[in-house]
Amino acid sequence: MRLLFAAFLCCLFGMSMKAQDDFAPVGAVWHYHQNAENAEGSFGYLKATVVADSMANNLDCKLIELERFDPFNGFVELGTELLCMDSSKVYWQVGGELWCLYDFAAETGDSWVLSDSKSLVMQVDSTGYQVVNNIELKVLFTSMDGEAEGISFSGQFAEKLGWNQFLFPVFDEQWLGPLRCYQDDQIGFYNTGAAPSCEYDSFEGVTSNAQVEGAKSLQIFPTLASDRLHFTIPELSEQTIVQVLDVNGRVVRTKQFLDQSGRQTLTLRGLPMGSYFLRLFGPDGEPIVEKFIVQR
C-alpha cells in the first residue's frame, strides 16, 4: 500500500512539472524585439497580451491585443488577433480562414497543414524539451513546405511560448523577434536573455553609458518626477546642451549649461504626464540618455 501511495505521489509530482495544455491564458504577455519602421538603427518592442476569452467556429478562443513601441514612432496600437484551441492544436483566425499554427502532440516526422489556401505544410524535424522556471515544455523544431514567398514561420516552437520569433507567421519580410519575455500565472516571469529587459529600446541601447567611451555615469532623480528633475554628471564640457525628448523622439525642452558640473536641475512644468528621455552630450560628442516619467 505504501509503495502504491509513493508511486502515486511521484506521478503527481511529475505531472506538476509538465506544462498545462492551456495555451495563451488570459493575462499572458509576450514581448518581442522589433525594428522601427522608416528609422534605420532604431528599435523597440512588440507586446502581445491575452485580454479575454472568446468563441469562434465552435472553438475556445483568446482575444490578443498587439501594440508596439520604438523611440522614433512612439506607441502604436496594432489591433487584435484571435487564437483558438482544439486539444493540442492552436489555430489563428486570419482572412476568414483558420491557420493551424501549432500541434504540440506532433512528433518527429509528423506534419500538419498550416494554411489550405496557401498550400503550406509544417514539418516536424525533431523534438525536445525546454525547462522554464522548473516547468518542462515540449519543443518542436520545424520547417515549412510550400510556396511561402514573403512568409516566415519555422524554427523552434515551444509549449506555452509559441514560435521563438513571434506568436504568428510574419508576412512581407517584416521581421520580428526574437522573443524577449513571457509571463503567465503558471510559468511566472521568463526572460529569454535576448535583451537586457522586456521593454529595452534603442534609446537605451545606442546611448548606454557603458557604450560611451570615456563618458561618466549620468544619474537622474527622481525617475518619477513632478515639477523638477535633478541630474548629476561628474564631468561636463564648457558648454553642454541638455534636452528632454518625448516618446516620439521630439525635443520638448532644452537647456544650456556653461562650465558646470555636479547636480543640475530642469523644470518640468507644462509637460504632460507620460514617459520622457533626458539627453545630453558628453565631452566626446556622444549622447547619453536616461528615461524618466512625469507623474502628478
Plain-language structure description:
With 296 residues, this protein is mainly beta. It has two domains: 2-202; 207-294, Immunoglobulin-like. Helix content is 7%, strand content 54%. It contains two helices and 23 strands. The strands form five sheets. The chain has an eight-stranded antiparallel beta sheet, with no helix packed on it. A hairpin with a 2-residue loop joins strand 8 (120-132) and strand 9. Mean pLDDT is 81; it is low at 1-16 and 205-216.
Q: Report the principal-axis shape.
A: elongated
**Secondary-structure content class:** mainly beta
Q: Quick check: average pLDDT?
A: 81
Major sheet size, sense and barrel closure: 8 strands, antiparallel
Q: Tally the structural domains.
A: 2
**CA gyration radius, whole angstroms:** 24 Å
Q: Kindly report how far apart the N and C termini lie.
A: 65 Å
Low-confidence stretches: 1-16, 205-216
**Strand line-up of the largest beta sheet:** 6-5-4-3-2-1-14-15
Task: Tell how many strands the DSSP assignment holds.
Answer: 23
Percent helix, as a range, is under 10%
Provide the β-strand percentage band: over 45%
Please work out how many helical segments DSSP would assign: 2
- Elements, N to C (H/E): HEEEEEEEEEEEEEEEHEEEEEEEE
Task: Quickly describe the structure.
The protein is mainly beta and 296 residues long. It has helices at 2-16, 202-206, and strands at residues 29-35, 43-56, 59-70, 74-86, 89-94, 97-103, 111-115, 120-132, 135-145, 151-152, 155-158, 162-163, 170-171, 176-184, 188-191, 219-221, 224-225, 228-233, 239-246, 251-258, 262-267, 274-281, 287-294.
